[in-house]
Amino acid sequence: MPSSLHADALQDLGLDVYRIEETENNHDIARIAVEIHLPDLFLYIPSQGLLDQGYGNLDQVWETCRKFGIPSVVLIRGQPALLELQGDSELWSSDYVVSSDASGWLAKIRGRARHVLLAGAAAERASEHDGLPRSLPSCPLTHLLYDVVVPGMNSRKEHVHIRNQLVRVLRDRLPGLRIRHEVAGVDGETLGEALRCSKLVLLLSPCSPFYRGCSTEGYWDENVFNVIAQGGLVFHNKVQGRRPRMNASVRESEGNVSSLGHDLEDGRHVVLYDLKNSEDLVQKIRYYVENKTSREFMRRRAYWFVMQRHTLKTRMEEMLGHIQSLEAETDSWNMNTN
């Protein structure tokens, strides 16, 4: 999800956005830009890999922001990025960290930053979907190519192993099932066609209780929103834990919280299956593969729901609201203690 889409979403909210391209050592450019423009907010969206290449001294940027009373925010795009960037202490020295991760890792590694938890979002330009009549993405062919698509968007060996096991079970129990396995890149054209030309899409949590080092409860695959936005009917394994509170920051004491979204419902927008019970998955896939009416009704309802409430524009609006509320709490606390 390119950071330019986040900037577009902020502009769609009526905000003036000054963009700084992320290149090596451009922290000086960012610091100078803060001093010149004095923005109401400094938002940094890191790209995976750049920080490992000596990106620069972000602490100077944070200190400049604090000098002028400008809140500094780091937005982490997905759990894979968090995994790669968790060792960079400079990221966690900003005023706020925004992510869709609530597995407990962030609470352990962050510094003084306050964590704002958001669910994922559909990686579409938000203004294209805000209440305007749009056509549900559909297969351009006269017939569907697949019954089940299993995207291979996570290369962790544990994830690959479990995904392969699920595919073997489906092929053994449902002979003749047309399965497309290992389609990479959720925003890619090839995968987009596969999603639109399939009856359902099988997703697996990128972090589950079976993985070493992961939360005991796991968390949701944020690609759920992208898959739905491209016309896919999502099957996702059940994940324990509470759903995120969208109107509050997440404190360390709250522990594990799932990050699917506070209002996507099983049997209404997605289909949840028990990862420890293969029969549960087989029966649900058999039902939805054979029942076009139920399948299409859920697919359409999920698509319009995501386009109305889970775009980047709505996520950016939520983020700004959370930060504004937290800033007001801080100002009130400072006034009462002085």
Mean pLDDT: 77
CATH architecture of the largest domain: 3-Layer(aba) Sandwich
Sheet-strand content, in percent, reads: 5-15%
Radius of gyration based on Cα positions: 21 Å
Number of strands: 9
Number of domains: 2
Enumerate the spans where pLDDT stays under 50 for 5 or more consecutive residues: 50-55, 241-261
The class by helix and strand makeup works out as: alpha/beta
What is the N-to-C succession of helices and strands? HHEHEHEHEEHEHEHEEHHH
Largest sheet data: 5 strands, parallel
Query: Briefly, what CATH class of the largest domain?
Result: Alpha Beta
N/C terminus separation: 43 Å
CATH topology of the largest domain: Rossmann fold
The CATH H-level superfamily of the largest domain is Glycogen Phosphorylase B
Summed up, the helix count is: 11
Helical residue percent? Answer: 25-40%
Architecture overview:
With 338 residues, the chain is of the alpha/beta class. The protein has two domains: 3-124 and 312-337, Rossmann fold (3-Layer(aba) Sandwich), CATH 3.40.50; 128-243 and 253-309, Glycogen Phosphorylase B (Rossmann fold, 3-Layer(aba) Sandwich), CATH 3.40.50.2000. Helices cover 39% and strands 12% of the residues. The protein contains eleven helices and nine strands. It has helices spanning 3-12, 27-37, 58-67, 79-85, 105-109, 157-173, 189-196, 223-229, 278-290, 292-309, 312-337; strands at 42-44, 72-75, 96-99, 114-117, 146-151, 179-183, 198-203, 234-237, 271-273. The strands form two sheets. Strands 6-5-7-8-9 form a five-stranded parallel sheet, sandwiched between helices. It has a four-stranded parallel sheet with strand order 1-2-3-4. Helix 1 packs across helix 11. 39% of the residues are buried. Mean pLDDT is 77; it is low at 50-55 and 241-261.
